[in-house]
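Recall that a protein's primary structure is simply its ordered list of amino acids. Everything else, from secondary elements to tertiary packing, is in principle encoded there. The following example makes that idea concrete.
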Amino acid sequence: MVFLKVILIILAALIVLYLLAIMPGMGRRKARRDFEGVYYAHRGLFDNEGDAPENSLPAFQRAADKGYGMEMDVQVTKDGIPVVFHDFTLERMCGKEGKVCDYTWQELKSFKLGNSQETIPLFEDVLKAVGGRVPLIVEIKVEWMDLSVCPAADRLLRDYQGLYCIESFNPLVLLWYRRNHKDIIRGQLSDGFVKASRLKESWHLLVQNFLLQNLLFNWLTKPDFVAYNHKYEEVLARRLCRSLYRNMAVAWTIRSQEELERAKGRFDLFIFDSFLPEQSTDARLRQTSLYY
């Protein structure tokens, strides 16, 4: 009987510790509402086979012209200049070897995106092109521990007059913002990392993927929203953040109207690409939110 009580106490303690570990930011619900009522174009309204490839100025211009918010990816060049580009490597979109951080801005601006004549845009130029017309979700790209992109991007965003928030897969980015610009809405990106892991991966990478998938850094970073791959919406930590803690839930990346309709009961904001969602009114979108 005593042994059973000890086991129950230990289990109860583990449950409490787990709930504390995944606890996101609990306040600023009014500020989060400002981002509702609009769909977010993933890397702009892009066409990688045409003249408006992903994360290009024309793709962002198209999204803003149609009234869509947009998600974009920011990292820094070798000489510390913020540019908008998704992959850490250049091969897929530019057909070049190496990473963005291996080249200076002068070198990068000669590389063409996809089959177009567009080049990698400066983050500063993207902000000017959008001009505050629609809200932005800015993903800060940090591969490991180098956080130099955070102050570089933040310097530009402090002068930006439009609505924006930041997000990142790397919890260190959220921690940087919590310490240095805590009034900015920040989001933790996550995915089904464990399910996608390969058995040959090192144990420390598997542990890292487990922690990230299950949002076990939330106690430290206190994200205002969690952006999750909608294909893994059943992950318990993600569901608890929305249902128990009333944290804002963002779905990425929705690629059909069918996927969008299915996700509406489970998420509050929606990042899309490869189709144009049926435009919804602000009221209709807000009806799907649990954190009001």
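The radius of gyration is 20 Å. Residues 77 and 100 are 6 Å apart (CA to CA).
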